[in-house]
Design a protein that fits this description.
It is an enzyme of class 1 (oxidoreductase). By secondary structure, the protein is an alpha/beta fold. The chain has two domains: 143 residues, NAD(P)-binding Rossmann-like Domain (Rossmann fold, 3-Layer(aba) Sandwich); 100 residues, Dihydrodipicolinate Reductase, domain 2, CATH 3.30.360.10. It contains eight helices and 13 strands. The strands form two sheets. An eight-stranded mixed beta sheet has the order 3-4-2-1-5-6-7-13, with helices on both faces. The two termini are 20 Å apart. The structure holds nicotinamide-adenine-dinucleotide and the ligand O=C(O)C1=N[C@H](C(=O)O)CCC1. The site of nicotinamide-adenine-dinucleotide has 28 residues, from α1 and α3.
Length: 249
């Protein structure tokens, strides 16, 4: 059974990973809170992660925390030679570069969204944007009112897919007198209630509209995907991996 450490273990996703871990075992968690345990899982401060990875004989780390915390634990994973699955979003360019550096020493798999549906949505987006290459594009995401980063990592990943097909300029919200330019894509982030995650891309041409959308119903979909990725990653060589590698395996 794969022995998993969860970074961000006291959070919403940390709890979802613990709940979803049936074919894996969560043996330790990392968080900055004072909590000593969560659902029987011992909680260790991230500063002591390298020691804990050895003490608990961890096979792989699953991370759903904050960027600065993920980077601290990534250094611990390099120190201990433990693979890492990174689910945290909101990294800046320097943070992404530090994760790339870590992937030269350990197997590191990063995904902004661990649902298989979003993997398929991104492939559909690539096909649609490449075909309907003169349609207006607008992107909207909606998440719970505790989400602190915007737009979502998933929305940014969808933008990356679009940019591979068309040179578009994101416009993050609109107000006042702002005529739409042909090369722009409106990006809207909504925050409300406990919405788990909704994404929609609208492609609007003359006399027709194509809408591609995905809705996550429960955080368990992300947790299950991350745990599948974690089990898959163990035994791989050091390097940078993506969730599409797991879905296609
Ligand atoms: N990739 C995906 O599929 C996916 C799915 C859901 C959420 N997420 C991302 O996961 C992250 C966490 O989401 P959430 O809803 O669980 O958030 P949350 O706020 O509920 O939990 C964050 C956790 O990180 C902990 N934390 C804070 N600072 C820390 C540090 N320095 N070191 C270690 N842990 C620290 C908090 O104590 C908490 O346990 C966000 O970035 C979110 O966008 C990704
Ligand atoms: O709940 C969150 O926060 C989520 N974050 C990821 C993102 O930023 O895309 C995935 C969806 C849920």
């Amino acid at each position: 059974m794969t022995r998993v450490a969860v970074n961000g273990v006291t959070g919403q996703m940390g709890g979802a990973v613990i709940e979803a871990a049936t074919d894996s075992e969560v043996v330790v968690g990392f968080a900055t809170s004072e909590t000593s345990a969560v659902d029987g899982v011992p909680v260790v401060h991230p500063a002591d992660a390298a020691e804990a990875l050895r003490e608990y004989d961890v096979d792989v780390v699953v991370d759903f925390a904050v960027p600065e915390g993920a980077l601290i634990v990534a250094e611990a994973c390099v120190d201990a030679g433990v693979p890492m699955v990174v689910g945290t979003t909101g990294f800046d360019e320097d943070g992404l570069a530090r994760l790339q550096d870590a992937s030269e020493e350990i197997p590191l798999l990063k995904a902004t969204n661990f649902s298989q549906g979003i993997q398929v949505l991104q492939r559909l987006v690539s096909e649609a944007v490449g075909t309907l290459d003169d349609y207006d594009l607008e992107l909207m995401e909606t998440h719970h009112n505790r989400k602190v980063d915007a737009p979502s990592g998933t929305a940014n990943s969808i933008l990356d897919v679009i940019q591979e097909e068309r040179d578009v300029e994101p416009v993050y919200g609109r107000e006042g007198h702002t005529p739409r330019k042909d090369d722009e894509i409106g990006v809207l982030a909504r925050r409300a209630g406990d919405i788990r995650g909704e994404h929609e891309l609208v492609l609007a041409g003359n006399d027709e509209v194509l809408s591609l959308s995905h809705r996550a119903e429960d955080r368990g979909v992300f947790a299950a995907g991350a745990l599948d990725a974690a089990t898959w990653l163990v035994g791989h060589d050091a390097g940078w991996y993506e969730f599409g590698d797991v879905v296609d395996a």
